[in-house]
Design brief:
about 375 residues; membrane; single chain; 2 domains; about 55% helix; Palmitoyltransferase; three-stranded antiparallel β-sheet; mainly alpha
Length: about 375
């Protein structure tokens, strides 16, 4: 819920001075954001030289072994770089224009005499939108920076300055938001990066003794390659495992962090500024049913297919196969409510979504159930 003085006009425009200053600062910031990406690219480039030239050509003497080393290495490298490229350069999922609150409605909100009236105005506008999650005080989720109703699972990214569909987090190592459009690529990037590091580390182990005894050259590059690959592998294994866990439960990093702020939200839930601070770090609150951290979970297989698609041949290929549009999601509890509204028969031992093997059918039920109420 937004907080603004009553009787004042909404600030639609920035001054010329502020615009020019922000543009200069923004240009510098945008340039600096690419430094982590350039660092990763530099490490990959150096590791290529160390593995292909120093290890494979200068150290490995068996021709067959050298060919096998290079074939598998380049296969993993191609998938690694492909996934990384897709993660970095895929556009973020932006909120559709129909969620933007018109200027006339914003003026009505400003002129409202109390928060209850503001809430009613937003609720009336949101009736035509497929949103079922709410804030702590049961209000429609509104972003006063982007001036829009937030779709379910969308959050405002302070780095990108826009609301992003199914925002997981903003990752500086890819200079992009990890969100609905590139989450599959990000998971594959972590997996192939881990496989790359483990393969490089295991390939150098048999030659460690020769390096220490000085029987072969290239000691610095191969030794450093081993320790760097091990270091990155240790970091990646926990991160990759964590995101696989999130995929199987159909959660996001922002949603998972909610438990940290539970007591804070409970003690300060009466203050508007608290909503703005912790809204992204809480368990989803549904219009029907209240808070439910597993509200979007459809079962491990369905959760996996929601991100990776239903064609198993493309699961591990960095091409877009995610299901849905990033705006509407089938929900375990809410689908049951929607089925009841449509006159469907509920089964106590099966979730609504598990009975719906068609993703589009689940999406329709969600939208219909919201519009009927």
């Amino acid at each position: 819920m937004m907080s603004m003085p009553h009787g004042q006009s909404y600030d639609y425009h920035r001054t010329t001075f502020d615009g020019e200053r922000n543009e200069r600062c923004g240009c510098c910031v945008r340039t600096m954001k690419w430094f982590p990406v350039l660092f990763i690219a530099s490490v990959i480039g150096w590791s290529y030289y160390a593995f292909v030239i120093q290890l494979s050509f200068f150290t490995v003497t068996n021709i067959v072994q050298r060919i096998l080393f290079l074939l598998f290495y380049h296969a993993v490298l191609v998938m690694f770089l492909w996934s990384y490229y897709q993660t970095v350069f895929t556009d973020i999922g932006r909120v559709p224009s129909r969620f933007h609150v018109p200027r006339a409605e914003l003026d009505r909100i400003v002129r409202a005499t109390n928060e209850v009236e503001q809430k009613e105005i937003l609720e009336t506008f949101a009736k035509e939108l497929p949103v079922v999650t709410r804030t702590l005080n049961a209000s429609v989720r509104f972003c006063d920076k982007c001036r829009l109703i937030k779709p379910d699972r969308a959050h405002h990214c302070s780095v990108c300055g826009v609301c992003v569909l199914k925002l997981d987090h903003h990752c500086p190592w890819v200079n992009n938001c990890i969100n609905f459009t590139n989450y599959k690529y990000f998971i594959l990037f972590l997996g192939y990066a881990l496989l790359y590091c483990v393969y490089v580390a295991c390939s150098t182990i048999p030659y460690m003794e020769l390096l220490w005894t000085g029987k072969i050259d290239g000691r610095f590059h191969i030794l450093f390659l081993f320790f760097v690959s091990v270091m990155f592998a240790i970091s990646l294994v926990s991160l990759f495992g964590y995101h696989v866990y999130l995929v199987l439960l159909n959660r996001t990093t922002l949603g998972k962090l909610s438990s940290i702020f539970t007591h804070l939200m409970a003690s300060k839930s009466r203050h508007i500024h608290c909503y703005l601070i912790v809204e992204s770090f809480r368990t989803p609150i549904f219009r029907f049913g209240g808070p439910d951290k597993n509200g979007f979970s459809l079962g491990k297989l369905n959760n996996f297919q929601e991100v990776f698609g239903d064609d198993w041949r493309l699961w591990f290929v960095p091409v877009y196969t995610s299901m849905g549009d990033g705006v509407v999601y089938p929900m375990r509890c809410y689908d049951e409510d929607a089925e009841a509204l449509l006159g469907g028969e509920q089964h106590g031992n099966r979730s609504g979504t598990e009975n719906l093997h068609d993703f589009e059918a689940a999406t329709f039920l969600n939208e219909y159930g919201n519009l009927m109420n």
